[in-house]
Design a protein that fits this description.
Layout (H helix, E strand, L loop, with lengths): L1 H21 L5 H6 L1 H4 L7 H20 L8 H21 L6 E2 L3 E3 L10 H11 L19 H11 L3 E5 L2 H13 L4 E4 L12 H8 L3 E4 L7 H9 L4 E5 L15 H11 L3 E6 L17 H6 L4 E5 L10 E5 L1 H9 L2 H4 L4 H15 L7 H7 L2 H17 L6 E12 L8 E9 L4 H10 L5 E2 L1 E3 L2 E5 L8 H14 L2
Parallel strand pairs: 1-12, 2-10, 4-5, 4-6, 6-7, 7-8
Antiparallel strand pairs: 3-9, 8-9, 10-11, 11-14, 13-14
This protein binds pyridoxal-5'-phosphate (PLP).
Length: 483
């Protein structure tokens, strides 16, 4: 009883103390008057700055009610709030979307912006960014034109497709195709291909929201032609095959080859679409990269439509491309949804530039491809030299060497086909690799690395040669700093 009584007393006292200290919170007006906050106020920002001041006070209040920070005096409390709000206001200006050095060896990392564009492509984008452009006008005739006409022509000539359609990304391509072709009837897709592709793109849910019906065929590991035949009888208006690019089903499996599916589609007058995903256009095999079938090869199977991303293996800016039968593409183009999915001039300038490089046989100058095609020998030579340079300045408890490893294409491409690479291993005493990694992320530009066990690993495959010097400097700095 005594114990309980004492507890009750302390708890009551604590609450009273908190209530007392809450009275010390400054008013919004009071915070706004501080010159560290005043300096951020413009005609436009006044309302926003007031909101940040209010939010900071409210957050501090919440924390105080939770007992943190402990009761502070009036002046200290205001100081804490002003400093926090001022830091937030600074960040609004300094924290912008910016470049990072990707030393992870993942070539197409969605979180890092996927394909890096080459100089020629960046210049093409820059050219139209600050000027008016002939986006939708034929300057010879003065007539209005289709903004994607040039890109479409190049895609058709490169892939051999009858026609092409360019939209905002590959998810939009799937959406447009399914909505156009299967909003009546239904779409048939194998149970082994009902994938989630990062973020919130879950195929079964998307299909269900677009098609009248989703007809799931086969099983997770085996789908046969007769399963699709049944779906056609049940009224499927589109047969969709999806490249399961971010995972593989291995073991006792069976899927229907695209050519067989295409044959069924032709025979029953139901279009067949393949969501290929990565957009392999050049023959990577000839460069020693064991790759996937190219868009050209896929179209040869007789499939009606193939769609893919523009910013994966294709190596362009974010976009989605559908190639195939002109009549189907024309239906999609006249779908009112296509207006909502259209691409902007910056995307088109970049995409046209990349496609032109394919056309001119200069795909080696597309960074995503050149990174993939970098031979193991080239990467090894770079890694060995880098390890040597870094090793010279390394402290005695840090071991640096070039070791065999694997790069990954990423972006849901080539899940089981990593690329042989040579990594620079920086072996450090326990705890330091994580600290080095954190320190490197704090650099400008930030550096992203792999950490495994007691080592930090650098894969130069995804680092532009021009960025090596900065990387070396930051690593030397970082290794010297973390203890
Ligand atoms: C990446 C991918 C998508 C999504 O493409 P986005 O361009 O990111 O919208 C869809 N399907 C497949 C098979 C993919 O690999």
């Amino acid at each position: 009883m005594v114990e309980d009584g004492r507890f009750l007393y302390t708890e009551t006292q604590r609450i009273m103390d908190i209530q007392e200290s809450l009275k010390n919170l400054p008013s919004v007006e009071n915070v706004l008057q501080d010159k560290r906050i005043q300096s951020h106020i413009t005609d436009v920002s006044r309302m926003g700055v007031t909101r940040i001041a209010r939010e900071t006070i409210a957050a501090t209040r919440e924390r105080m009610i939770g007992g943190d920070p402990p009761a502070l005096g009036k002046a200290d409390l205001k100081e804490t709030i002003v400093v926090t709000a001022a830091a937030e206001l600074e960040a609004l200006v300094s924290d912008r979307l910016g470049p990072v050095i990707n030393a992870t060896g993942v070539i197409l990392h969605t979180n890092l912006g996927r394909a890096v564009l080459g100089d020629e492509t960046c210049a093409a984008i820059n050219d139209v960014a600050g000027e008016y452009s002939d986006l939708e006008i034929d300057v010879k005739t003065g007539q209005r034109t289709d903004r994607t006409a040039r890109a479409r022509r190049l895609i058709r000539l490169i892939t051999g497709a009858e026609d092409a359609l360019v939209v905002n990304n590959n998810a939009a391509a799937v959406l447009l195709a399914v909505q156009t072709l299967a909003s009546e009837g239904g779409v048939a897709v194998s149970r082994g291909e009902l994938v989630e592709i990062g973020g919130s793109f879950r195929l079964p849910e998307i299909l269900a929201s677009l098609a009248e019906r989703v007809i799931e065929v086969g099983t997770t590991n085996k789908t046969h032609l007769k399963d699709y035949e049944r779906a056609v009888k049940e009224g499927a208006r589109l047969l969709l095959k999806v490249h399961t690019s971010n995972y593989a089903i291995v073991g006792y499996t069976d899927e229907v080859p695209l050519s067989k599916l295409a044959e069924l589609g032709r025979g029953s007058n139901v279009p067949v679409m393949y969501d290929q995903g990565s957009g392999v256009v050049s023959p990577l095999e000839s460069k020693g990269v064991k790759g996937e079938e190219s868009i050209q090869d896929l179209l040869e199977t007789g499939v009606d439509l193939v769609c893919f991303s523009a910013d994966k293996v294709l190596g362009g800016p974010q976009g989605g491309i559908i190639v195939g039968r002109a009549d189907l593409i024309s239906m999609m183009r006249s779908n009112h949804l296509s207006r909502a999915l259209r691409v902007g001039k910056l995307t088109l300038a970049g995409l046209e530039s990349v496609l032109r490089q394919y056309w001119l046989g200069r795909s080696d100058s597309i960074p995503a491809l050149s990174m993939m095609m970098s031979s193991p020998g080239e990467v090894r030579a770079r890694a060995e030299e880098f390890a040597l340079l870094l090793g010279r300045s390394a402290p005695s408890d840090c071991r640096i060497e070039a070791v065999d490893g694997e790069s990954s294409v990423g972006g849901g491409s080539y899940p089981i086909k990593p690329l042989r690479t040579t990594l620079v291993e920086i072996n450090l005493p326990t705890g330091r690799p994580e600290r080095l990694s954190t320190c490197l992320r704090g650099m400008d530009p930030p550096v992203l690395v792999r950490v495994k066990g007691n080592s930090v690993f650098i894969d130069l495959r995804t680092v532009k040669p021009a960025g090596e010097e900065t990387l070396l400097k930051y690593l030397q700095e970082g290794i010297g700093k973390v203890k």
